[in-house]
């Protein structure tokens, strides 16, 4: 397949390229920008006048629910949804059933994602066997099977001693570790940010210290062991300050934030909607403001969907009994573009937080447009407002934004030069 994208505004944050031009694609790679190569004849031409062409988005946290939770989603359904959101590379956490702690599970996920063909899936392995926090997984074997990083997610370690030994081992082989800092004893039983809203609603609160105590421990152990580290889904202003201080001291740590944390806060829980039950929880308006400022400054270099699809029954219960999580991967770009509409970021800077930023955090070969490189490209119309939820593709419809408007819409997504999504 030889394809030409004609007349788009091409923005590549990695090279700071930003101009209206043509892209010519063959054999899954970008062959030329501007004039077509000699002898090049396109089988298909996309008229992209008025559209933005960016690198395919890189999402660091997308739960695919397969294997083990087919009622919530599948690799086919959730990667199809990712493509609709402009995502061409995604990292899936190890919370499958069985847990992603063996090469066999990693290979199953990769085989099924390649068969689906909608997006490039990059598995994240379990740091410990069955995520139980006691015995280290076979990290090298998992790395060789395709895992790009390792994590415990929200599952606690058996002790700080075990965590330290795990980080030392990971540092020996230079494999990155992803932390989601939340102290289990401080967060136990909680479901909302500890503050006036939780008190008024009668919800058990999770204090900010549940995040910051765990973060402080993690930063100290990172410094001691020298492990490559990334913090996933930070939520509080104090955590952002701690991260910025660590970065200023030269500690090589990166972080992402869930897109919905930049738009929502605990005050939105007043209607008791279980669609807003997430973990870590929505924090205060002041925390949200600090997260937005950290994205603006680059202290937080990546925005991720933190996609968690659920079957309807998991949310059709009272708030406290509902399963936490939002289905959000197919609206990652539309949600993030509200930051441009709000004047927080210029468009190239926002695209950096969705492409080069997350790719650099885990040293991934993705998120940029280079001659000879993979043709992972997202096209979107910055002038075409869309209604969220129309033609919804994820198996999970647990999204509080459905029915709302977004400032722009993805029109086409290409992964390895293949057109994997085209808007109706």
Protein model, in words:
There is one protein chain. Helices cover 28% and strands 22% of the residues. With 424 residues, the chain is α/β, with parallel strands linked by helices. The strands form 4 sheets. Strands 1, 2, 3, 4, 5, 16, 19 and 20 form an 8-stranded mixed sheet that branches. Strands 6-7-8-9-10-13-14-15 form an 8-stranded parallel sheet. A two-stranded parallel sheet has the order 11-12. Strand 7, helix 2 and strand 8 (120-126) form a beta-alpha-beta unit. Helix 7 packs parallel to helix 8 (237-248). The chain is globular, with a radius of gyration of 21 Å.
What keyword list fits this structure?
single chain; 424 residues; alpha/beta; 8-stranded mixed β-sheet; 12 helices; globular; Metal-dep_hydrolase_composite; Dihydroorotase
Helix content: 25-40%
Taken from the alpha-carbon principal axes, the silhouette is: globular
The description of the largest β-sheet is:
8 strands, mixed
Q: Figure out the total of helices.
A: 12
Return residue spans where pLDDT drops below 50 for at least 5 consecutive residues: none
What gap, in angstroms, lies between the N and C termini? 21 Å
Strand content: 15-25%
Number of strands: 20
Radius of gyration: 21 Å
Q: Give the overall average pLDDT.
A: 97
